[in-house]
Fold these 4 entries.
Entry 1:
Amino acid sequence: MRFRLLAISGVVLSVGLAVAEPTTRNIPAPPAAVTKALPESIDDLKALQKQVREVVDKVIPCTVCLQVGGASGSGVIVSEDGLILTAGHVSGEPGRKITVILPDGRRVEGITLGRWAQIDSGMAQITTTGTWPYAELGNSKDLKAGQWCIATGHPGGFKKDRPPVVRVGRINFGNDNLVQTDCTLVGGDSGGPLFDMSGKVIGIHSRIGNPLTANIHVPADTYRDTWDQLVKSEKIGETPVWLGVKADVDAKNCKLGEITKESPAEKAGLKAGDVITRFAGKDVGSYQDMVKLLQKQKPGDEVALELKRGDETKELRLTLGKRKD
Amino acid sequence: MLKRYFIPALIVIAIAAPSYAQRKGPGGGGGERGPTSTKSNPTFLALFKPVVETPAKSTVRVLVDGKDAALGTVVSQDGYVLTKASEVKGGRLSVKTHDGRDLDATVTATSDGFDVAMLKVDGTGLEPIQWSSTKECPVGNWVAIAGPAGEPVAVGVVSTCPRTPPPPYGPPRVPSEQTGFLGVRAGQDPDSPGAVISDVTPGSAADKAGIQAKDKIVLIDSNEIFDQESLVNTLLTYRAGEKVKITVERDGKRIELSATLGKRTPDLLTPKGKGGNRGDMQNSMGSTLSDRRTGIPRFFQTDAVVKPSDCGGPMTDLDGHVIGLMIARAGRTESWAIPAETVTDLVPVLMAAKPDMKPSQRVVAARAALKQAEESKAAPEVVGEARRILQASLADEKWWKDHPIEAAPAPREILFEAGPAPRAVDKK
C-alpha cells in the first residue's frame, strides 16, 4: 500500500514539475560576433568562445550514452521525464530494453520507441523514475551555411572519467533530409545532439563520409514532424502504404500521370492530370514531396488532400491501403 | 565480445553539391571534396597569429635525416627540447629554430608512457617556453598550435578536461608467439571494473588454471583489470611460460588462481598495420593518425586536426597561455595534448640524464629524479614514469655489464621488439 502511495505522489510530483524549464533555458542570446560569416578578431573569437562555454555547460548534462544490445551510441534528453532523441540505427527495433548512461556515469533503464529508418531518426524513453536535465528542440529549416554549431556525444562509446566530448564547427549544407557540418564525428557519436549557439537541438548525428567536412546529422524538424509516431513506437515508412498513383514524369509539380485501378486513389476520385497541392496538412511542391509525406503514413490512415483539376480547387479525404508486393 | 559503435560509414559524395564546392573554390588538402573545414580555412587560421607569436619563439622543427618529423618545444636556454619520441626514431636528428638556425640534436631521455623525448641541441640562446596550466578546465576554449615560423599549424576547441585513462601505459604491445596467452574470451561488466569471461578455450592456460565462464577477472598479479581491453593489454606484457596470479570474482567471492601462460598459435596473431577493426577504420577517415596514439597516462583532447608531424609543439589558448604539449593525432575527432602542469612535473625527470653520462651515472640520476618527483608531489603519472625510467636505466646498466665490449652499439630497440617491454615494478 505504501508503495502505491509513493508511486502516486511521484506522479503528482512529476506533473507538478512538468512545467519546469529546460536546462538550456538560461543560455544568453548569442552576441553579434557569433553571427558574423567568420570572426574578424581575437575579441570575436573570445565572444564565440564565451558563448560555446555557456552552451556546453548546459547541454553536457543532457547528452547520454545508449547501450543497445552489445552496441553503444549517443542520445539527447529532450523532456523532463526522459524522452530521448537518437539515431534510428541506434534505437533500432522499438520496445528493446536499453541502458542509458548519464554524463556522471549513472546508469538508468530505458526502452526504445519509434524510428524512421530512411531518415535515420529514432526515439527512446528513460523508464527509471526520475526527472532529468533536458535540452530544447530547435528549428533546422532556418539553418544557414556558415552558421556555428556544437556537437556532443560519446565517440568510441562511453568511457569512464570522460564526459561527452565537445566539437565546434559550422553548418556546410542542409535540406529536409540532412544537415552537414564540419563538427567531426566517429562511431559511438551516432544519435548524439548537434546544437545551435543558443543550445537548442538542431540535429542528431547519423553518419560520416571520408572528408572531415562530411559529418551528417538528421535535421531536428523531422523529429517534430513525426513526433507522435515516434512516441507511439511506430516504424515510419516500413509498412508498405498504398495510394495508387504514378507521377506525370514531365511535370515539376505533383501532377499525376496514372491512377491504378481499384486503388485508394481511384476510390477517392483522383484522376490523371490532377495536381496535388496539399497532402496530410502540408504543402506539396513536387511528387517527391508527396511521396515523403505518404511514407510517414500507414495503411488505414485517413488523409486530407487538396488538388487542382484545371482551374478548379478540390479537397478530398481518402483512406490509405496496404501495398501488395 | 567486440563492442560495436554506431555510425555507418557511408560515403556521402552525393550530398556535397558540386555547385557548392565550386563556390567555395579549391577545397581542403588531401583531395577532399566539398567545402573546406572551418579550421583549415586560411583566413580563419590567420586570426590566431597573434596568440601563437610568443610560443612560436620556443618552437622548433625536428628533422630526422633532414625530413620533417615533429615539432619541438624549447624548455631551457641551453638547448633542451621536448618532442614526440615515436616520431624521432632511427636517423640523424637536427632541429630548425625559430631564428632559422639548423642545430644537431641527440635524445637524452625518453618517457615511453607519455611518448615524450628530451632532446639536447648543440646551441644556446634558445627561448624557453612559459607553461601555464589546465587547472581551470578549458573545455570549449579555442586553442592553436604554434609552428616555428610563427604560423598557427592547427586550431580547434578543447573537447574534454584532462583525464587519466586506465593502464597499461606506453607503446601498444604487439601479439607475438612469445607473448603470454591465456585462452579466454571476455566482455565488460557494465557496472564495475573487470573482464567477464564468456568462453574458456579447452586445454588453454586459463582452462588449466581453473578459470570458468562468468568469472570476472579483476587482477593479474597486482595489475588492475578494468575491461577486456586492459585484460588484453596486460596479458601482452607477459611472456609465454610466465607464471601469473589471476584474481577472479566468482559468485561474489574473490578467488586467486595461478596460471602458466601458454604460447599464442600463429592464427591468433593479429596482422600488423591497420585492419579489421571498424572503429580504427572510421578513425582513420579524413586525416592521418599518429603511429603512437594510445597508452598516454594523462592528456586532454581537442578537435583541432593536428598532423602527426606537427606533434611535440606547444598548445596555446586565446590569451597566449601555453596549456599543453601536443602529443598525438589520435582519431577522426581528437588530437591529444599533455596538460602543461603535467609537462612541468615531467621536465626535471627527463632532464636528469645528461648526454655524456655512463649507464651507471644514469641510474644514479634516474634514482635522484624519482626521489625528487616523489618529494615535490609531482603528478602520480609522472612519478610512475620516473619509476619506469629508473627501471629502464637499471636494465641498461645490466646490459652493458653483460656485454663488456668497447665497440658495437647496443641493439636495444631490436631486443625490445623481439619480446615484450619490461613492466613497471610494483611499488613495495
Entry 2:
Amino acid sequence: MNDQNNNVLEFKDVWKIYRMGDEKINALAGINLNIKNGSFTSIMGPSGSGKSTLLHVGGILDMPTKGTLLMNGKDTSTLSGKEQATFRRNKIGFVFQRFNLMPQLSALENVLLPMIKPDLEKAKELLDKMGLEGKHNKRPSQLSGGEQQRVSIARALINNPSLILADEPTGELDTKNAEVIMGILQDLNKNEGVTIIIVTHNPLAAEFTDEIIEMRDGNII
Amino acid sequence: MEFLSRRKIGINSLSFKNLRRRKLRSILTMLGVVIGVTALVVLVGLTTGMTNYMKESTTNMMGDVMIMNSTGGGNIMSQPGSSFLSPEAVNELKNMSQLYNIKEEVQFFTEFNGTSIYIVGTKDRSQIEINGTPGVVISPVIEAMGYQIGNKITIEDQEFTITGTFSEGAMGMGVLVLDSDKALPLNDNKPTSLTANTRGDPEVIKEEVENTVDGITVSTKSDMSKQIDDMMSGLTLFIGGIASIALMVGVISIINIMLVNVTERTREIGVLKAIGFTSREVLGSILLEAALIGFIGGVVGLIIAAILLQIAIMLFGSQIGDIQLVQMLPVWLIAGVLGGATALSVLAGLYPAWRASRLNVVEALRNE
C-alpha cells in the first residue's frame, strides 16, 4: 500500500489500439509500468515503438483503449473532460519537441498562460531561473531554439506540477543547448523533487536520467 | 507591463491578440460587416428621416382635417385619381359651421396626345407659384413632347399657358399642376379631397362631419401620421431586409475566415488543451474572436453611416426641410444594429468554434 502511494503513475495492462484501414496497430500492447515519485526516466526506442503514445496516455492527453492508468492512485478513466483539463493544468507540465509557444504572446505571457490567477512575480522568477533575464518581453520568434525551450519549461513549471512530461525536448536543439536543457531538467529533479519522464532518441539526453526504458512495438523490453 | 499587471492573461486575451496577428485578414473580414452595417443604417436612416419629413409636410399642408370619399379607400395610400367627392357632399361640407378655410384638391388622369397624364389641382402655392403669381407647371415628360414655358396647352378643351416646369422627374409621369379652382371644372367640379380647419377639437368634429355627410371619411392629423407610419414601416422593413443581405454576406465571410483561422491554429489549440484549457474555454475564445469582429465592424459601420447621413443632410437638407441626424439615427436602430451584428457574428463563429473545441489533442499536436 505504501509502495503504491509512492507512484505518480501506474500503468496496468494498458493498451492503445489504432485502426489504419483494415489493420489494427497496437501502439501500446499491455504496458505495466510504475513511475515513482521523484524519479527521472527516459523512454527510448525507434519511431513507432509507442513511446510518444505512452507519454500522451501518461499525460491524460489520450485515453487507453484497454487497461487502467492511475495517477497519484486515482483511476484516470473516471475523470470528466473538465477534470482531465484541471489535472493537466495543475498536476502535469508538458514540454514539447517544437516548444509550442504562442507566437503572438511574449515569453512572460506564455509562462502566465496556464495560470488561472496570474502571478507575475513567480513567472518572472521562473524565467530568470531559466537564464532569460532581460528577455521577458521578447516574442518566441525573437528567441533562439534553446531559449524558447527554456520558456516552455518555465511554462510547464508555473503551476507547480508534480510531473513533467517532455516529448523529445532536445530534438530541435544542438548539443550545447541540449545539454543546457537536460541540465535544467536534472536540477529540477534532484533539487526540487519533480518527477520527470522524457521521450528521446538522443542517447546523450538519456544519460542525464536515472532510468532508461526501451520500447519496441508497443512493449517495454 | 502595466497592461499585464492589471489584466488577467487568460485565454480571452488571446482572442484580441489573434485578431491583431493577421491584421489584413481581420480588417478584410470586418469590412464585410462594415459594408453591411453601413448599408443597413444609411437606408433605414433615410427611410426614417423620410417618414418624419412626410409626416411634417403632410400635416403642415392640410388644415385640421382632410375629407375624402369613403369608397376610394379614404386614405393617402388609395389609388390616386380614382375616387372623388360628389358635388352634393362638397356643398354640404361647405355649409357646415364647424369647418372653415376649406380648400379643394383634385388629382385625376386625362387623355393627352394619345397618352395619359396626371392633372393636379392644388391650393399649395409653393408648387405652382412662379414669381408670385400662380400658374401652370409641367413635368419633363410633357416638356419632351415639345411644350415650353409660354406655349399654350389644351387639356379637356380648355387652353392654358405654361408658366413653369419641374426641375425633377415626377417619376417619369406626364404631370400638369395648376390651381385647383382652374382644375376642378376639368373634372366636373368633383374634388379628390377637401382640407379644412375646425372650430373645436378635430376628433370631435370628425365624428360630427362623418355622421352628417354620407359617403365620406375624415382624417385628422394624427390619423394621417398613423397612416404614414403604417405605410413607411412596411417600406422600412423591406429596405432593411434588402440591406440585411449585405450584412449576411459579411457574416458568412466570418464563418469562412474563422474556419481558416481554426485550421491554421490547430496545433496551438492542441497546446492550449494540453496545458489545461477545457474544450469550453477554447470554444469561448473562438466565439469571442468572432464577436469582436462583428462588434468592431458594427461600430465602424455606424460611424461611416452617420457621416454619410450627415453629408446627405448637408446636401439635400434645404430641400426636405429641417431634418436632424438624430431623427435618422434613433437609439433602437443603433442598438439593434450593434447587437445584431455582434450576435450574428457569434452565430457565425459557432461552427468553427465547435470544431476547434472538439479537436483531438494528440492529433492537433501532431499537426504541422
Entry 3:
Amino acid sequence: MSGVVNSEKPSSRRRLVSRLFPSESQTGLGADALPGPSGLLEPALVLIMVGSLATAIADFIRLLDSGWGTYLIMPLVVLASVEALAYWARLNRTTFQPREWLVLLLPLALVAKFGPYIPLGLDRLLADAWSWWRSPFDFFDMLFVITCLLLVASFRLTLDFVQDLSGLRVQPGELIVRTSSVADSVLYSRADYIVDHLAPLRRLGERFLWGGALLVLLCALTAVDPAQLLTLEGARDLLTFARPPVTASFASVIVYFAAGLLLMVRSQFLRRQTLWQVEEVPYEANIGRRWHWFGFGLLAAMVALALLLPVYYSLAFNEAFGAIMSAFGEVFMGLATVAYLLLSLLLWPLRFLRTDAPPSAEPATKPEAPPPPDKAGGVVPDFLLPLLFWLAVLVIVVYVARVIWLRRRVIRTFLPRRRSWRQLWSALRELLRLFWRASRALGQAVGSNLASLVGRAGPTRLTLVLSHRPFRSMGPRELVQYFYASMVEHASRQGLPRHPDQTPWEYAASLRKIAPDLEPELEQLTDSFLWARYSHHHVGPEHSSHARRSWLLIRQKLKARSRRQTFSRSASS
Amino acid sequence: MLNLIPLLVFLVLLAAAFKVSFVFHLLYLLVGVYLLSRLWSRWALRSVKLQHLAEPFALLGDRLEVQLSLYNSGLLPVPWLNVYDRLPSRLISRPYYTRTLSLLPLERVSFAIALYCRHRGYYRLGPALLRSGDLFGFEERERALEEATFLTVYPRIIALEKLGFPSRMPFGHLPTRQRIYEDPSRVVGVRDYQVGDSLRKVNWKASARIGRLQVRKYEPAITLDTVILLNLNAREYDPHRLDYSTEMGITVAASLASHLSSLRQQVGLITDGRDAAEEGTEAEIVGMPARKGQGHLMRLLQLLARLEYVERQRHFAQVVQEVSRHLAWGATLVFIAPRETEELLDISFSLRRAGFHVVLIFVDDPDRSPASLRSLGMGFPSYVIWREEDFNVWRRQQREAVV
C-alpha cells in the first residue's frame, strides 16, 4: 500500500514483531480474497476470550452437578475455535453452510461423548451403548447437549469475531485503482463502493461486552453458590444488597477482559488504518507497532493497579450504595402500598354495582384426565424407531468421515496403509452407494407420487425446488462461483484436475481437449464464472440459473463419461 | 465505538448485590482504562506543537522546501496523530498536506514539503488541524492551530535598459540634453571664460596653467523622482482578462521600480489595490513614498507581491486627484492603467499643468496600437504593454533577464 511510508530494514526482533503485528501491505490488499486476521495476535486473543468463557461455563456446570466430567469442555471449545479460524482462512465467501459446520464439529462432539469412556473402560461403554440402543434419547444426556451447544456457540462466536475483524479491513474494490492507461483511468479509477467499517467495530465491542457480562455473572454465581440463592433468605439478601462479602479470584475474568480490551485496541487500529488507506492518508510504518505496545503497556499497568488496589474501600462504598438502594426500595414499597390502598378505596363502591351471584364456595369439579395411550398393539414395531434413529446417525457420521477423508488428504499419511483398510473402506463405500441409490429412488418415487397427488408441479419441478434449498443463503454471484467450483471438483474426481497456475480459460481449453463433449456448456459456465468472479457488473438470478443449467448438463456428461470409462475398463479386464 | 458505561453500571449493581471481590478488581480495571484513555488523548494532543520552517521570501520560479515540524513537548506519547495542513493551491497541486504518525515523549518529527513558486503573491502556510484519539476509540479530538506562517513570492522583474521618461528635477544622476540642469558635482572639463559666467565656476588652477581664465564645464543631469500609480480597481479592467492584466501591471511596476532603483533614483508607489498582509483593514489607498536604496526597493517589491486587485466604487483618477497634493513638484508620475479613459486624460492634463511629468502605460488594451493613442497626440509619453515583447521599447537590445 502506498500509504505506508518509512519502511525500515527488518532485524530479528522486528521480524518477530512483524509476525505478531503484520503490516496490512503484506496481506495483499486489493486482491479479491476476503481479508482475514493476519499474524498471531488476533487468533490468540480470540482463542483466549473463548477459552476463558468456556472455563467459566465449565466451572458453573460443575457446580450444578459435581458428577459431570467437564474437563474436556475447555479444550474442545478451544479446538472448535481453532477450527473456525482455519475454516475462515480457507473461506472465500461470506456465507456459511450448516453441512460444513456438521463436518467440522461432529468429530469434536464424538470426542466429547466418548472421551470420558477412556478411563472408564470398554465394559461401561458397551453397557451404555446397549441402553442407547434401547432408548436412543439416552445418548443425548444433559452434559453432552450442553457441550454440543458450547461447541456450536464457540464456533459461531469465533467466526463472528473473525468476520468482524475482516470487516474492519479494506475490502476488495474499496480502494481507488490507479492505472496508467487513460482509458482504464476513465473506466476504473474510482472505488467501487463505500464500506461501513464502524458497524463491525460496534459489533465486536458489543460481543465483547455481552460476553464479559455473562462471564462475570457466571463467575459471581459460581463464587456465591447458586444453591444459596434459591432459598428465600438468600434471594432477599441478594435483592436488598445485604449479602456478606465473598473473597474469590477468577483469573479467567481478568484474562478475558485483558484479552478483550487488547482486541479492542487492535480493532481500533485496524479501522483507523483502513480509513487512512481509503482516504489515501500516508502513515508511518511504525505507528501500528507503537499503537500495540502502548495498548499493552496501558493494560498491563491498569491490570497491575486493579489487582493491587484493596477492595475494602469499595466494599464500604458498596454498602453505602446498598443502603441507598434499600432506602429507595422501602420508599417504593411504601408508595406502592399507598397506591394500592387508594385504588381499593376508589373501587370499593363498585362492589355494590355487581348483580351476578356470588361465587359458590364449592370448588369446580376437576375434569377427568384422558386415558393413557395403550402401549401395546401399536402399528410401528418397537425396533423400527431405534433402527431409523441410529441409521440416521450413522449416515451423518459416515458423511462427515467421508468429507474429512476426501478433503483432508493429510490424514491418510498418518494412517497405516494396509490393504484391509482399503477393502473395508471400499465395502463401506459400496454400502453407502447402495443406500444412497435406494434412498434417491425412494425420494424420487415419493416426489413423483406427491406431485401427482398435488397435480400442479411435476417431479422435475419438485426436484429443482428441493435441490435449491441448500443454496438459499447464497447470492447469485456466489452461486455462479459455487457451480463452477463444483464442476471443477467433479472433473478433478475424474482425473481432470485444475492446476493451480491455470486460468479458467486455460483449464477450459485443457478440458476441451480431453472431453470435447462438454462444450458448449463448459464455455458458458466459464464465461459466467469469470463474469461473477472478476467483474464488478451486476450478477442477477438469471445468471445463476443459466450457470446452474450449464453445471447440471456438464455434471451429467461427466457422469456419463465416468460410466463409459468404468465399463470399458471392466470390459478390457 | 466501544461504550463501557452499560457494563460499568451492570458491574456496580452486580458488585453491590454479590459483593464478590473480583468484581471490584474488574471495576477498577475498566474504570481506570476508561478514564485514563480519555485523559491521555486530551493531554497528549494539548502538548503537540507544530511549526512551519521556511524562508519568508522567495523569488518567482524558486522551488522552496518547507519543513513541517511536529514536537511533542509532553511526557505522554501520542499513539496516533493526523496532521492536516493547508497549503496555497497556487504553489502546490494538492493544496494540503496530510500524514498520520505517532509521537513519543519529547520527540520531534519533521517533514519536507516542496512548494513551487509559480505565482507572485502573499501566501499563508496553514492553519493546521491536528486530530488524535485514544487507543480504544472512546474519544476522538481535534485541535486547530491558527498560527500560520506567511510566504511572499516576489513579482516578476524584467530587466530594462533605457526608459526615456521626462523630468524637470535638477541635481540628479541621470544625464540629459537640457543644459539648464547642470550638475556642479559632475565636472566634465574646462572652457574659456565668457562674459556672464559666474566667478564660482572659474577653475583657478587651470587658468594659471594655461594663462587665461578657464571655467569648469558641468554635465547637465536630472533627478527622475518617479511615483508609480498602479490601478488595481477590478471594475476598470475587462473581467475576462482581469488576472492577466493586473499581473502584467504589477510586473511593469516591479520592473520599473527595479530599474529606477538601480539608477539610484527615488521610486514610490500608490495603488488602490488591497494589501493581502493587511487583512481586515479596508484602506482604499496603499502606497509607499518615493525613496531610494536597496532596502526601499525590497520593501516596495514585497508590497507589489502582496497586492491584489479589488473592486472599488471610486475611479482611480479620483484617488490620484486626492493624493497628488502630497507629491513632490516635478516628479514623474507613471500611470499603469487598464486603458485610455476620459477621466485618466483629464487627471493627466491637470497634473501636467501642476508641474508633473506624466507617463501613461496601458496593460489591458491588447488590440490598441500605441500610435493610435489619443494621449500620445496630447504630448504624453504613452505605451501599451500587453506581452513580454512590448517591454522592448525600454530595451536597447532585445534581450531579457529575469531576476
Entry 4:
Amino acid sequence: MTKSGQVVNRPRRGNGTLNYLRNHWQLYLLLLIPVAFVIIFKYAAYPGLRMAFMDYKPAKGYAGSKWLGFGMFEKVFKDKDFFTALRNSLIFNFLDLGLGFPVPVILAIMLDQLRFRRFKRINQTILYLPHFLSWVIIASVALNLFKPQSGLVNILLRDAGLIEDGIPFLTEKWHWFWTYLLIGIWQNMGWGTIIYLAAITGIDTSLYEAATIDGAGRMGRIWHVTLPGIRPTMVTMLIMNLGRVMGSNFERLSAFANVNVRDFQYQLAIYVYEKGLAGSNFSKATAVGLFQSLVGLILVVAADRVAKKLGEDGLL
Amino acid sequence: MTGNLTNRKQSFFGGVNRVHVSDFVIAFVILLLSLTCILPFIYVMAKSLSSNTAVLSQKVYLWPVGFNIDAYVSIFRDGKMTHSLLYTIEVTVLFTVIGMVITTCAAYPLSIKGLKFKGFFAFILMFTMYFSAGLIPEYLLIKDLKLLNTMWALVLPLSFSAYNMLIMRSFLSSTIPDTLYEAAYLDGASDLRVLTSIVLPLSKPIIATLSLFYAVGRWNAFADAKYYITKQSLQPLQLLLNNMVLDAAGNDAISIAEGTATQSTPEVLQSAAIMFATIPIIIVYPFVQKYFVQGTMIGAVKG
Amino acid sequence: MKRIVSLLLVLAMMLGTVCIANAEEVAAPHADCTLPADWAPFAENVTITVPVYDRSKAGYPAVDDNYWTKWIQSEFGDKWNITVKYIPIPRGDVMTKYSMLIAADETPTILMEYDYPKVAQWAADGAMTTLDLDAFKAVAPTYYQAMVDNNQLGYTDINGETYFVLSERAYYNTTYTYVTYCRMDWLRKVGYDHVPTSYAEYTDAINKIIEAGLTDTAPLGLGIPTAAYVANFGYRDVKVNEKEWAMHSSLGTPNLTWEPTKKMLKRLNAEYNQGWYSKEFDLSMNSSGASTDQQQTDFVNGKIFSYGGYMGSNVAWMNAFYENNPDAELAIVSSYQGVEEGVMDTPQFRSDNPFGMIVGFSSLATEDQLKAAWMLMEWMIQPEVLSVLENGIEGVTYTIDEATGLPAVIGDYMGEYMLNHNMNIDMTCLVHAVKKTGTIEQTIAGIAPQGLPVDFTDAMIANYYELKEIADAGNAYSDPIFACSIDSESEYSATLLSLYQVDYAKLIKCDPAEFDALYDELCKEFLDAGYQEIIDERLAAFEAGNCTKLPAGKAAE
C-alpha cells in the first residue's frame, strides 16, 4: 500500500471541485451505472419497509392494511423469545467471526507457501468443495459421523479404547455449540482463501527478494511482506463481516436442528421463521429485519471509524 | 504437460529448488484438511452410484454398493433437469458478465485517491449491503418492474454486489501504484483509457476471482427464484434440487393432510441430482485458478 | 485435456437426451361426455389460472406445461374459448407462495388446500370471493350434486358467508392406505401364532423378543414427530367431552396439555425405560431432508419389530426389506394391539375429513373467469374425462387388465404422454382426492405393493374391514372445523410445534418417577408460549356455535 498520498490529478488550471469534475467526468459517468442500478433494484424497495409499521395483509395491500405505528416493534421487544434469539445470534456470530476469520488467512498463507505445484492445485480445488454442498447435505453427513451411539467417529473412538460412552457432539447443547461452529469454519475455510490468495498474488515480488537479501527466513517473509500485503483485504473483510453479526443463516440452523439443542439453536432466523413467515406475518418479519439491518449498519459504521483511527483505509 | 519423464517429475515438484522439512509439514496439514473436505463429496457420489436398497439400509460409505448408474440415466432422460442445466448456465454467464461490468464501474473510480464525493458514492452503494427491504417489499418491486417470471429477475437484481465491489476496490488501491496513474495522466490519458490499458490488464487475478464469486453465487442461489419464478421452465437447477431434497422434510405433515402417500424422491436419485447440479460449476474452477497460481508461482520461484 | 474431454462428454450426453425424445406419435384420446346444454363458448377469450402442486420429483414432466395440460386446453379450453394456465405451488411452501401471489395481485382464479385453517385465512383476509351456490349449481350441476351426495354442504361457509366448494374423498373414514407391518417370524419364535391383539400380549411379545436376543438394538422404532398431529385418538375417552375436543383436537397445533396426550406420553416413557426404543431416537427427525428416516433404515436392516407407511404399487422400503431379509415373514399389525383397560379402552383412530380439496375462488376474478373456472370443474368431474386424465392412453400408459376389465397403469412408462405424480392427482384433486377403481377390493388391489415375494392384497383388505368395523362402531372421527379463522393459531403454531418436539423427547426420556412433575412444568410453559390463547379462541368459537359437532352419540353427556 503506497502512502504517497498525493492527490492524483491532471496539471491544474486553477483550483476547486468544479475543475476536478471537469477533468474526471468519465469517472462519474462510470459511477452512474452502479448508482442507477442500486436505485432501481434496492432503494426503490425501501418504501415497502413501511409494512413494519402496519398489520400488513397480502390481500389488502399497503393501501388496505391497518397502520400500527411502532406496535409491531413493541410486541417484538416485549417477547422474551426475541431476546433469547438475539443473545444466541450475537454469541454465535461473534464467535463465528472471531474463530472463523483467521482460518482462511492462515490457510491461504500455507497454500501460498506450498511448493509442490500439482499437489497444491489439486488440494486447493478440493478445499473449495464444501462450499458447493448445501447445509442440508453437510448436516446429514455430520449426523452420520457424530451420532453418540452409531456415529462413525464415536464408533472409531470407542473401538480404539479412547472413550467409553459416545461423545454427544450434536445432541448435547455445549458439544453442539462447538461442533456447529467448527463445521461452519470448516465449510468456509477453503473458499475464504480465494480472496487472500488473490491478494497475495498482487504483492510485488521484489519485496520478497528484498526481504530475502535482508536475511529474512520463511517466517520473516510471511511476517514482513505477505501479511502487510494482504492487510487491507483483511481489514475490509473484517469490517464487512461485522455487519453480519446480527444476521443468522436459517438454512444452516434448521439443518443442524434437533430437540436437544434448541436452547442455542433458537436464533433470529428461527425466530423470524417461526413467529413471522410461517404464519405469513410479513410485518413482523420485516420489523425484525429492519432492526437487524439498523444494528448491523451501526456496527459497520463504528468499525469503519475505528479502522480509520488506526490508520487503515476503512470502507467509506 | 509433455510426455517427457524428467519433465513430469519436475512439474510435480514444480519450481522447487530446495525442499525443506517445513514444506512437508505444511503439505501434510493441507492434505488432512483436504481429506475432510473431499469425504462428504465422495459419500454423496458413492450414494448416487449405489442401489436403492443399499442406500436405504445405510450400507454405503465411501464406495458404491450395488453399483449402477440408473439414477443418472433417469436424470438425463427427464428433460426437466437437462433443460434447467442449460438455462442455468445461460443465466449464470449473463449474470457474471453484467455483475463484473457494474462492479468494475464502481470499484475503479472509488479506488482512486482524491476522488471528490467519494464518501458519498461509497455510502450510497454500500448502504444496500446491510440494509435490505425484506422479502415482500423486494418482491413487489420486482413485480412493479414487470420482471416476475422472466429470466431477468434472476439476472439483474442481484448482479451488483457491494461486497465484491469492496474487494475489488481494496485490491486496486493496494496493488496499482499511484505512480502508474500519475505517469498515465502526464501522458494525457483519460480515465477510461487508464482503466482499459492499465488497470484492467493488471487486475486479471481479481477479475478472475470475482467472476468466480459471481458465477458460484448465482449458481448456488435459489431463494430469489423460489419467489420470483413460478414457471417451471424458468427455474434454475438449484431450485429444482432444493425442492427435491428439502421438500422431503415436510412429507409427514403433507401425508396426513392429503391422506395419501407422498413419497419423496429416492435418496439415490437425490444424490445423483446433487452431483448433476454441482459438477458443472466445479469444472469452472480450474480455468480460473491459473490466474492466481501464475502469480504465486513467481513468488515461490523467487522466494 | 482431461477437463475438455469431460466437458465434451457432458455435452454429448445432454445432446443425446434431447434426441431420444419424440419417438412415437399417438392419437390424442377424446373424452365424450354430456355437459349442461346451456353452456356456450365465451365471446372473448377468458384466461383462468389454476394452482397445481409442484412436488419437484425427479422423473416427472413439468407440472405447468406437459402433454396433459395441453390436452385439457385442446379438449376443454379451445372448445369454450378459455385459456387454462397452471401456476405451480411448491408443495413444501404453500402458504408463502400463495401470500406472494396474493400480494402481487396475481391471485390464481382458483385457490385450494386440504387444510381448513389455511383456506379460512384466505377467506378472512379477503383474498377469496363469496360464492352464490345457486349460480355455481347452474353452471356445474354434476359437481354440486356430488357435494350433496357426500353431505358436504355444511362445510361451505365461514364467518357466515359462503366461500367454498369441496371435492370428494372416497372411503375417507378409514385409514386403509396407511399400513403398519411387523415381524411375524419373530413372533413365531417367541411362541405366538398371531399378531398381538392386546397391550398385555404386545408387552409380553416385545419383552420375549428382547430376551431371545432377536435383535442387537432396541426392538422398536421411534422418532420425533415432524407434524403437529398427535396420534392420541386411542387414548381418548370413548365418549369425548365435546368442549375439550373442540379446544384440543387439531392437525395444526400439537395438544401437549390434553389428558390423552399425557397418557400416550406416559406409556411411551414406560416403554422407553424398558429399553424398547433406541437412546438416539430423538435424533431421528426427518427435518434434514437428505438424511434417511432412522426407523426405516433399522426396519430395512431387520433390526426392529415394526414399521408402517402409506401403501402404493411400489414401496421402496418394502422392496429393500425383502432384499435384505429374504426369509422374514411380515404381518399387518392389529388395531387392537394397544388396548389396555384404563389407558386405551378400545381402538379409535382419526378418520379423514369427509372432503378432499376445499376450493375457493379469487376475489379478483371477473364473472366470466368464475364461470370458466366452474366449467373446468364440471367438465373434469365427468367420469369420461377423469378416466382419460387418470389412466392416459391405452397401450401407452395403461393396459386393460383381462381378469378385472379395469385399466392398469404401466408404472415404468416414461415419455411424452407420461402422467404426472400419482396419476395426475394434482390436477384431478380439483374434483376428487383419490382415484377410484371399481369396488374397495379393486381399489386396494390397485395400491397393494407389487414385486414382493408375498402379496399383501388380502391382508390389506382384511385390515380395511377391521378398520371399517371400528369406524362403523363410531370410533373413527375427525377434528373440529371452525367456521371462523383462529388467528392465534397461525401466530403460534410453528413455535408450539418446535416446543412440542423438545418436550416430547424430554418426557419420554425422563425417569418415570419424575414424569408427572415434569409434565406439569412443561405444560405450563407450553400454555404460556401461546397455547392458552389458541384454546381460548377455539373455545370462544365453539361456544358461539362456529364449530362442527362430534358425530352423533360420540359426545359425553
